[in-house]
Amino acid sequence: MLTQERHQLILQQLAQYGTVKIKELILLTDASESTIRRDLSELENAGQLTRIHGGASTINTISHELSFPEKSTKNQVEKMAIAKAAASMVEDEEYIYLDAGSTTYEMIPYLQNKKIVVVTNGITHIDALSNYEITTYLTGGYVKHNTKALVGQGATTSMESYRFDKCFLGVNGVDFNYGFTTPDPEESFIKKTALRYSQKSFALADFTKLNKVSFSKIADLEDMTLITNETEDNRLLPYKNLSNIKVV
Amino acid sequence: MLTQERHQLILQQLAQYGTVKIKELILLTDASESTIRRDLSELENAGQLTRIHGGASTINTISHELSFPEKSTKNQVEKMAIAKAAASMVEDEEYIYLDAGSTTYEMIPYLQNKKIVVVTNGITHIDALSNYEITTYLTGGYVKHNTKALVGQGATTSMESYRFDKCFLGVNGVDFNYGFTTPDPEESFIKKTALRYSQKSFALADFTKLNKVSFSKIADLEDMTLITNETEDNRLLPYKNLSNIKVV
DNA sequence: CAGTTTTCAATCATAAACTTTCAAAAACGT
DNA sequence: ACGTTTTTGAAAGTTTATGATTGAAAACTG
Question: Same fold for the domain at A3-67 and the one at A76-247?
């Protein structure tokens, strides 16, 4: 990746979110920590940003915070790492279902330049997918106001017209006995539908979701490949022996 | 490959991506590294690009980002007046189809507090509709990157599940003989579908669209009620005697 | 506030990109 | 066909960018 490309990416992230962490930039650019630090120094000297502990922020953070919604930075780096691993599963010429949700959203930058077709029920994904010029279809359906996800009969019906090589679903609970779960039965039903029409399915869950059980069941553990991240404790222990698990 | 061809290719890549790597150019041209370097030097001396470590970039990458910002607020006042009049046609308990486009978008603030259900193919409408807590369904379909409108078979199919009391469509051409027209046949087809499933239909067009004919026909004049605005000239003259016209 | 973890700046060796040079190949003109 | 000019690709030596390492500084934790 060219120096200028990195600089542009950094400034773009800042314009979008107001702040950015070094670890996020490392994931986005595949550059080393040293390189990112050098980039931030240069951009700071050029007066394009201000460095803060752990990352950088726009010069005038105040105005930005008011006009733009803050990126929820909770487990952001973990989510990006998982998203990156998930995106690496995608190959050219494939048809992909991308679930609504923040983790699947983070996959989009890593799908750049892949010759794929994406179907999604996440309205928030559309802008990013358009920016990267990825061919996109949206399912129809009822608009959930809080999450901007499409659900209901309209969503499932429109999915019946499609078949996917791979689907990527966010899940809120992973449990050895209860399998994959999520709070909203409506969304759960959409996920199940995606699952049914996909050759291969992936569940994205950061470590905070492990050994949690949510309300509505999506599938059993063996039905999807779990993509999650390493932790220092032994939360992952029950799953270590599973064949369909990828730990980043 | 001719020198001139290479130069053209380099400039074309730059125009498309803003930056280009030397390794990419080697692959694209089958020329040696030395040759590409010479090309870049020459083009830099000619003031056509700036070389950077690893490749080259356009002189002012900033201009690319500046082209983004604001879309023309052309005829904004007229559009709002028309939108307001259109929204006043909507009554409680009705099921409404709201077409994608800037004029129909302006209707949304005026729909506040109405107990209605809205179906739309305009992704850009969703945020506003959510803000006003209006029950919303989105049609599915292919995402047109530039307009963020949903089109294609998926869109029309999903509309078949719905029936509307009223639909509001933006049109680009209104002509006494040719009726209502719009540039994109795909979008035209969606509008026709909405029309078919609506009890009553409204076409929104500011005075600049009058006596214009666009490529793809939507309907005849008598099929929709035209909502447009007053002008000082006599553009409106041919339509004055129509029963289904509302001038604001 | 002491101990731990994370982040940071500085340094250095390596790898990648760059410039210069030169000889071979291709294109050109007579 | 012959010599001349232009273009090309490879090689040498130079510069720049990068990633790993290390100890210091800052933030976090109990």
Answer: no
State pLDDT tens for residues A187-217: 999 999 999 999 999 999 998 899 999 999 9
Q: What is the dihedral of CA A36, A90, A128, A154, to 10 degrees?
A: -150
Q: Where are the domains of chain B?
A: 3-66, 76-247
| Domain B76-247 = CATH 3.40.50.720 | no
A3-67 domain in CATH 3.40.50.300? no
Burial of A81: CB neighbours in 10 Å, binned 0-12, 13-18, 19+: buried
Residue ranges with strand state E in B38-193: 50-52, 55-57, 95-98, 117-120, 135-138, 141-143, 150-151, 164-170, 173-175, 179-182
CA of A64 to C1' of C9 (A): 29
Task: Note the pLDDT tens digit of each residue in B174-211.
Answer: 999 999 999 999 999 999 999 999 999 999 999 899 99
Q: Which of A4, A43, A116 is the best substitution to test chain B (most B C-beta atoms within 10 A)?
A: A4
pLDDT of residue B52: 95
pLDDT the model gives residue A33: 97
CATH number of B3-66: 1.10.10.10
Q: Do B136 and A157 touch (CB under 8 A)?
A: no
List residues bridging with A138 in a β-sheet.
A120, B141
